[in-house]
Amino acid sequence: MKFLSLFMFFFLLFITSVRANDIYLSCESTTKLKTSFIINDAQKKLILDGVEREIVD
Hints:
25% of the residues lie in helices and 39% in strands. The chain is an alpha+beta fold and 57 residues long. The model has no long low-confidence stretch (mean pLDDT 79).
């Protein structure tokens, strides 16, 4: 059990430094309306249902 705890600690420690270029999200509401997002933090872009939008800081 101690080995498993130690393994989980190091596993979680190392995966926190991994960054994705694009983050893909898709959701569906109870009314069956589907929405998708693509977020790119490096280029400050958000693509919402195929329409590209700029993120303003």
